[in-house]
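Continuing from the previous page...

OK, I double-checked the sequence for Isochorismatase family protein against my notes and this is the correct one:
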Amino acid sequence: MPTLDASTSHLLLIDFQARLMPAIHDGDTVTTQAAKLLSAARILDLPRSYTEQNAEKLGGTVANLAPEQGETVLSKMSFDACRNSAVTEDLSGNATLIVAGCEAHVCVLQTVLGLLDRGHRVAVAADATGSRTPANRDAALARMAAHGAEIVTTEMVLFEWLGTAEHAQFRAIMQLIK
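Thanks. Re-ran it with the corrected sequence; updated structure tokens here:
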């Protein structure tokens, strides 16, 4: 498959919620990497969406990933966000979905499988995706890959979005990596 193209990418952040993140193994690292993806998507003006699972119980999105005006927050109760018509409408089109989130083996896995089933190209940022246990995260990433998702890292995504060191936003994106 070709490299990720910023002009056809859409960042989907799944369930980075206040009451869930403290239970995620290495949760600070996971949210830090997701924040880099989010910042880069904002700098490059890429579409960005968030899901929140049962927000009444799990709280809203954590502060360092808080949605800004114009960014879509999609509430859901089903683990597969694609079972929610608002989500499928928001993610319609031929965009490549860059996915990060929690928990890898529940909502991220089921949503990625749903996106793949609907014909989307999906790239999952492994270092910005977590579960309560490493075994669950690793099994989920392997299963997603077996079904056709690309498993990438945050830096892979950022450099592929840029494509060249001559990109107008190269220095701004490099500040996220340092």
